[in-house]
Amino acid sequence: MSPSLRARLGSGLLGLALLVPIAAAAPASAAAADFPAGFTGYHTYAEMSADLSAVAARYPAIARKIAIGKSYQGRTIWAVKISDNVATDEPEAEVLFDGGTHGDEHMGLEMTLKIMHWLVDGYGTVSRITNIVNSREIWIIPSVNPDGAAYDISGGRFHLWRKNRQPNAGTTAIGTDVNRNFGYRWGGGGRTSTNPAAITYQGPFAFSTPEARSVRDFLAGRVVNGRQQIRMAITFHEYGRLVMWPYGYTTTDIPADMTVDDYKGLVAIGTKMAASNGYRAQQASDLYGTSGTTRDFEYGVYRIFSYTFELSVKDYPDDALIASETGRNKEAVLYLMERAGCPLGILGSAYRIARCGAFDDDFEVSRGWRVNMAGTDTATAGAWQRGDPAPTTTAAGRKQPDSVTSGRYGFATGLAAGTSPAANDLDGGRTSTTSPTIALTASAGQKLQFRWSFAHDRTASAVDEFRVEVLEGAIATAVFVSRGGAWERSASWNLASIDMGRWAAKAIRLRFSATDGGGSGIVEAVFDDVRVTQPQ
Ligand SMILES: [Zn+2]
């Protein structure tokens, strides 16, 4: 309350009684602001929050309303989880839909609410919906930037307000573009600004906004057993009727931080979704370059197959267009949820067998392997590292290969080349790295497959080895051993394929070890693309 208002009200009992409704009126009217005429069919923050509460109350077995953080102005950022046994974190493929990252793009929030209602209202009556809800965990964040959306409609008119409402030090300019504030390739090129007054202001540092941090922390919380559970995502924006796959930060189709297989899968799925909704399918940077986006972060950090949908043919479509614009995406979002079981399966049966089994790791991102998990490793140098190996070569040939079999990363005994071929190779004993727990299916015919290289010089002997074991509780069973000997063995990539029938229906780990059993000679091991295939 202002000092002048206090003076006019006085300090008597009458003044105090009057004070309550007068004082409450100002913030209440701002909070209750509805959309301008012609747009009142859109949900305000309060209406959205009430809808989520109503759904969670009506469908408690399959829907939960969960707070994932707070906006700068203190609004709760809400998520809804939809799945059978919704209170339990089941080992089901997960999907994320978000909207409202940009304050003036209100159709995205409507899109996410439609998805929620298609799922909960269709559950138990529409078999396709029932199957999706039973086999997936679906996360919906309708309004990532509720402050921006509320400000955009404040005073009963639109403000073309895209950013959040966070002040910027040293300037009167308000707000950061939350979709430039994520910490993957943050601060790069494209339509991404360092000027706090710009609508694409990236913020003073990555994740400077509480809104982007809330999404970041939510995503981090979906890493279970070392692996990101969310397989596919759509972030809804407007406008342009586009389906866009990563990346926005580069115009290169397949940069080093994307595998060829992922690129093929991203394009195939994006193209299929676009065929159903009539949108144009393209790489995000085909629209314009961007850095620090939700989509690039989700794929770059977690390899989530993440798409941006640009809804509508214009900004501020009136509310009569909500039903048709969201409705035309129904097939695309249902397909996405179904595909989330194994995105790369879209590429055909060979991919389904190889990439849709009980385990699949291309080592491009960390998925929970632990070096020296038991604490018993004896190597004094050259322990396993996940990354991009540097080549080493002696007069007798290549010892550490300079590339891996997919993407840029694998596991190697000492990634760096060092000052000589003998530097950064394995020395002094054994190094091990152990996978997260793998739940094999009950079917026969599952195979453990991986790519490997084991190289040594002529000082080697049979005590030097590359070994793969299956761990079942305390029992370690060697399923693959390659031993050294007194000859020069150059690096070369090989495929191993091992029947896993005896571990069907078991929960196991894999342990990859390399040992330099004696002497000062060169021993180098590398592996990549560890998979348990589908039964075949
Ligand atoms: Zn947008």
In short:
This protein is α+β, with helices and mostly antiparallel strands and 536 residues long. The chain has helices at residues 3-9, 13-31, 45-58, 107-122, 127-135, 146-152, 210-221, 260-277, 294-302, 322-327, 330-339, 349-355, and strands spanning 63-70, 76-82, 93-98, 136-141, 223-224, 227-228, 230-238, 242-245, 280-283, 305-311, 359-361, 370-371, 384-387, 392-394, 397-400, 410-413, 430-434, 438-439, 447-456, 465-472, 475-483, 494-499, 507-515, 523-532.
Structural account:
There is one protein chain. This protein is of the alpha+beta class and 536 residues long. It has three domains: 31 residues, no CATH class; 323 residues, Aminopeptidase (3-Layer(aba) Sandwich); 173 residues, Jelly Rolls (Sandwich), CATH 2.60.120.200. The chain is 25% helix and 25% strand. It contains twelve helices and 24 strands. The strands form five sheets. It has an eight-stranded mixed beta sheet with strand order 1-2-4-3-7-10-8-9, with helices on both faces. Strands 11, 13, 16, 19, 22 and 24 form a six-stranded antiparallel beta sheet that branches. Helix 3 runs parallel beside helix 4, helix 4 crosses helix 5 and helix 8 runs antiparallel to helix 11. The protein is elongated. It starts with a helix and ends with a strand. The structure holds zinc ion.
